[in-house]
């Protein structure tokens, strides 16, 4: 089994929400997937702070960046 590098992961995590999954990417992904969301690391910092982690918001943001 692969060891989680949670301390190393925390240095790349832009999530501002206080939770017990910070740095544990596999648990974070499962949590957000079950809620129909994406994790904070897939959003720009200014958007992440809105806590709108919906897939629709992700698509909307990336369509604006593309245009």
Q: Element order, helices and strands?
A: HHHH
How much is the radius of gyration in Å?
A: 13 Å
Helix content: 40-55%
The backbone outline, from C-alpha atoms, is globular
Give me the oligomer status: single chain
Number of beta strands: 0
- SS-based structural class? mainly alpha
Question: Could you describe the 3D structure shown?
Answer:
The chain has 67 residues and is mainly alpha-helical. It has a domain at 21-66. Helices cover 46% and strands 0% of the residues. It contains four helices and no strands. The protein has helices spanning 6-10, 25-34, 45-48, 55-66. The termini are far apart.
What does the secondary structure layout of this molecule look like, with pairings?
Elements: H1 6-10, H2 25-34, H3 45-48, H4 55-66
Q: Which terms would index this structure?
A:
single chain; 67 residues; mainly alpha; 46% helix; globular
Q: Summarize this, please?
A:
Helix content is 46%, strand content 0%. The chain is mainly alpha-helical and 67 residues long.
